[in-house]
Design a protein that fits this description.
The complex is a heterodimer of chains A (240) and B (396).
Chain A (H helix, E strand, L loop, with lengths): L9 E7 L7 H19 L4 E7 L4 H10 L4 H11 L3 E9 L2 E2 L1 H8 L10 E8 L7 H12 L3 E2 L4 E4 L6 H20 L1 H9 L24 H6 L17
Parallel strand pairs in A: 1-2, 1-3, 3-5, 5-6, 5-7
Antiparallel strand pairs in A: 3-4
Chain B lengths: L1 E6 L15 H17 L4 E4 L12 H10 L5 E4 L2 E2 L5 H14 L6 E4 L6 H4 L7 H15 L5 E3 L7 E4 L13 E4 L4 H10 L2 E4 L6 H17 L10 E3 L3 E3 L3 H13 L10 H7 L3 E3 L1 H15 L4 E4 L8 H24 L12 H9 L39
Parallel strand pairs in B: 1-2, 1-13, 2-3, 4-5, 5-8, 8-9, 9-10, 10-13, 11-12
Antiparallel strand pairs in B: 6-7
Helix pairs in contact in B: 1-2, 1-11, 2-3, 3-5, 6-7, 10-11
The chains are: A alpha/beta (240), B alpha/beta (396).
Chain lengths: 240, 396
C-alpha cells in the first residue's frame, strides 16, 4: 500500500441498504453524511463523498451469490469501496437482523477490502427493541472484515426522528469518523502491517502487481520443491 | 495450437427429454465422444475425476485407455486428475501405463478437487488440500525422473528404494498441466517445474483467470524456462453452436437453465455476456474465442466444454461436427496468424523425446533378472548407474 498523497481529498462512501423511497435508512445515511461533511470542513479535512444505494444492485447481488462473481455494476461498487478512506454503512433492520441486501453485499467483498477502514455503523428500525442490531450484528460483521468501526454506532427507531438525542448521537459518531480519517489510521495500519493480514489472490484490495503474494511462505517453499517446513535454523517466515 | 474438448463427467437429467442417462450410457457416451473428437479433426479429449454421484469418471485412465486403442492421433488428457486424494505413487504408475498404452498420446492436468467429503473418504483433510497437492506433486515429479526414489514427506508413508513402474515411455515423463483458478502457489509450482498451466475459464469472466495466468507467465520466465510469452498456457471455454444464432439459444436455453453450477441463476444472455460461454453461430464462437488470445496472449491449448448439463449424446456429437468443420479450422488459421515463431506449440511426446535425445535412440529400461533384491534395489535396470549405491540397509 502506497503512502497517501497529502493533497488528495479523502474519499467517503456511504452505503445505504434502504429499499423504499424515501427510506428512513437513506434519511439517516444522509444526516450522517451531512454531519460528517460539515465537521470535516471545520477540521480542514477535504472530503469527496459518494452515496452507494444497494437497491439497484439487488438483482446483481442475487446473481453473484449463485455465480460467485460480480456483475460489472457490482464490481464498480466494490471497486469504490476498495479505495474508500472511510465508510458509512446504513441498514434497515428486518426480522431482528441486518437486511439481507446489505449482508449479501458484504458477502461479496474480499476479506481484506476494508482492513483498517474507518466505518460508521448505522441501522434503522420500526421499534427501539432492535436498538442493538448495529452493535451486536453490524459491529461483529465489520470486525470480521478488520474494518475500524467508530466507537459510536447510530440506531434510529421511528420514535427517534422526533428526538434531539438522535442528532447528538449522529454528531458524536460523525466526529469520531472525522477524527479517524484525519489521523490517517487506515493508511498507517496498512503501510505498517498489510502483509500480516490474510489476503486472497486477485482481491480487489490489491491493485499493485503481485504484492499480495508472499514468496517467503512455507507453501511457496513447498511449491518450489522444498519441504515447506520451517526449521529452527531458518529465519521466521511471515505469513505462516 | 491444440483444440479439443473436456468433460466434467456429470450425469445430469436431460431437461427436455425428462430422462436421466444411466452410468452405463454416459460411460459409453464418453468413449463415443472421444472417438468423434478425433474423427472431426480435433486434437485433445480430456475427462475429469470424481468420486461421488452424479459423476461417473472415478478412473480416468481406464476410460482414456479405451479411447486410446480406438483412435490414432488424439491426445488423451484429464480435467482434472486429483493430486490431493490420489496417492502420487499410484498416479505415477497409472499414467505411465496410460502413456505406454497410448503410445505417448497423453498428458494430464492436476487439480485439487473441491468436494469436501471426498478428502476424508481417502483419509485426507481438505484444509490441507494445498500443501497436499504441492507435496504430492514434488514426489510425483521425482518418481517419473529417478529410477530409484528415497523420499519422506508430511502426508505419505516414506519411500526407501522405490521404483515406480513402468518407467515412463522412452524414459520421458508425461507432460503435466496444473489447473487452478486463484491459487498462486499452484501457478508457482507449474512455473518452477516448467510445466503447463491451465485456467478452467468457464464459470467466471476472463479477467478472473487473467491475473493468475499473467503471474504464471512471469514466474515461468523467472525460473528460466523461456520468456513469459513462451510459457505453456491452456484455457477452457464453453460453447453451444448452431448454424443460426437464434437456434442455438432456443436449443440450449433449457439445458442452461438447469445446468449444474450456474443453472437457476443468471439469464443465459447475462451469463454469455459476462463469461467465456458462447451460445450462437460458428462465427460468434470464433469471435469470442479469439478474444481469449487478446486477453491472455498466444497460448497452446483450447478445450471446450460441450457434453454437460444433460445434453444428449446425439446433440454432443452434432456439436463436435460443427466445432470440427466450421469453428476450429478458422480458429487454427486465425490463431496462427501473427503468432510469433518463438511461441512454442503444446508439448507432445514426440517433441519431448526429440528434446531429450535429439536423433539418438531413447532409453528403454530393461530390468535385471530377479536376483532377490528387486523389491528394494538401487540398480533395478540393466543400464542403471553402478556407481549409485543404496542408502538403506539391504536385506540379506
Amino acid at each position: 500500500m502506497s503512502a497517501q498523497l497529502p493533497s488528495r481529498p479523502h474519499r467517503l462512501v456511504v452505503v445505504s441498504g434502504g429499499t423504499s423511497e424515501p427510506s428512513s435508512t437513506r434519511m439517516l445515511a444522509d444526516r450522517i453524511l451531512q454531519s460528517t461533511t460539515s465537521r470535516a470542513a471545520r477540521a480542514g479535512v477535504e472530503l469527496q463523498t459518494t452515496v452507494l444505494e444497494l437497491r439497484p444492485l439487488a438483482a446483481d447481488l442475487a446473481s453473484a451469490q449463485v455465480t460467485g462473481f460480480a456483475t460489472p455494476a457490482l464490481q464498480a461498487a466494490i471497486d469504490r469501496l476498495a479505495v474508500a478512506d472511510a465508510l458509512v454503512i446504513a441498514t434497515p433492520v428486518y426480522k431482528a437482523g441486518v437486511s439481507g441486501l446489505v449482508k449479501s453485499f458484504v458477502d461479496m467483498l474480499d476479506t481484506d477490502l476494508l482492513i483498517a477502514t474507518p466505518t460508521l455503523l448505522a441501522a434503522t428500525a420500526g421499534t427501539a427493541r432492535h436498538a442493538l442490531v448495529a452493535d451486536e450484528q453490524l459491529r461483529s460483521l465489520f470486525a470480521y472484515l478488520r474494518a475500524l468501526a467508530t466507537p459510536t454506532s447510530v440506531f434510529a427507531a421511528s420514535d427517534d426522528w422526533g428526538s434531539k438525542s438522535l442528532t447528538e448521537r449522529i454528531d458524536r459518531a460523525a466526529n469520531e469518523l472525522v477524527v479517524l480519517i484525519e489521523a490517517g489510521v487506515r493508511d498507517s495500519m496498512r503501510d505498517t502491517s498489510w502483509k500480516q493480514y490474510q489476503h486472497t489472490f486477485g482481491s480487489a484490495a490489491t491493485t499493485d502487481g503481485f504484492s499480495d503474494v508472499d514468496f517467503d511462505s512455507d507453501l511457496m517453499s513447498l511449491a518450489t520443491g522444498g519441504t515447506g517446513r520451517s526449521t529452527a535454523a531458518e529465519p521466521a517466515r511471515s505469513g505462516s | 495450437m491444440q483444440f479439443g474438448v473436456f468433460s466434467v463427467s456429470d450425469i445430469t437429467r436431460d431437461p427436455v427429454a425428462g430422462t436421466t442417462p444411466s452410468e452405463a450410457e454416459r460411460i459409453q457416451a464418453a468413449i463415443a465422444i472421444g472417438k468423434k473428437t478425433e474423427e472431426v479433426g480435433l486434437d485433445v479429449f480430456a475427462i475429469g475425476e470424481h468420486h461421488n454421484p452424479p459423476f461417473f469418471s472415478s478412473s480416468p485412465t481406464t476410460v482414456l485407455a479405451a479411447i486410446a486403442v480406438q483412435t490414432k492421433r488424439l491426445v488423451l488428457s484429464t480435467a482434472t486428475t486429483l493430486i490431493t486424494t490420489n496417492d502420487p505413487v499410484r498416479i505415477a504408475e497409472e499414467y505411465a501405463m496410460l502413456q505406454h498404452v497410448s503410445g505417448g498420446r497423453m498428458d494430464l492436468m492436476f487439480g485439487r478437487g473441491n468436494t469436501a467429503p471426498v478428502y476424508p473418504w481417502f483419509g485426507k483433510d481438505i484444509r490441507e488440500g494445498l500443501p497436499l497437492a504441492l507435496e504430492n506433486y514434488n514426489l510425483l515429479h521425482r518418481l517419473w525422473r529417478e529410477d530409484v526414489v528415497d523420499w519422506e514427506g508430511r502426508f505419505r508413508t516414506p519411500l526407501q528404494g522405490f521404483t515406480s513402474t513402468p518407467r515412463p515411455l522412452d524414459d520421458v515423463p508425461p507432460f503435466v498441466w496444473h489447473g487452478s483458478i486463484r491459487t498462486p502457489e499452484i501457478a508457482e509450482q507449474a512455473a518452477y517445474y516448467g510445466d503447463g498451466f491451465f485456467a478452467n475459464h468457464i464459470f467466471a469472466p476472463t479477467r478472473h483467470s487473467k491475473r493468475l495466468i499473467d503471474f504464471y507467465r512471469q514466474r515461468y520466465a523467472h525460473y528460466g524456462h523461456g520468456t513469459a510469452e513462451q510459457a505453456i498456457v491452456g484455457l477452457g471455454g464453453q460453447a453451444f453452436i448452431a448454424k443460426r444464432s437464434q437456434d442455438a439459444v432456443r436449443q440450449f436455453r433449457p439445458y442452461f437453465n438447469e445446468a449444474p453450477v450456474y443453472g437457476n441463476g443468471p439469464t443465459l444472455e447475462d451469463f454469455t455476456d459476462a463469461t467465456p460461454l458462447t451460445v450462437g453461430s460458428p462465427q460468434e464462437v470464433i469471435d469470442k474465442t479469439l478474444t481469449f488470445r487478446n486477453a491472455f496472449g498466444d497460448y497452446q491449448r483450447q478445450l471446450f466444454l460441450i457434453d454437460h448439463a444433460g445434453l444428449p449424446l446425439g446433440t454432443v456429437l452434432d456439436q463436435l461436427e460443427l466445432l470440427g468443420s466450421e469453428v476450429v479450422p478458422v480458429l487454427r488459421r486465425e490463431m496462427a496468424a501473427g503468432r510469433p515463431e518463438t511461441v512454442p506449440d503444446a508439448p507432445t511426446h514426440a517433441g519431448l523425446v526429440k528434446a531429450k535425445y535429439g536423433d539418438a535412440e531413447p532409453r528403454q529400461p530393461r530390468p535385471h533378472a530377479n536376483r532377490g533384491d528387486n523389491v528394494t534395489g538401487a540398480s533395478p535396470y540393466q543400464d542403471s548407474d553402478p556407481a549409485f549405491q543404496a542408502r538403506f540397509p539391504l536385506v540379506g
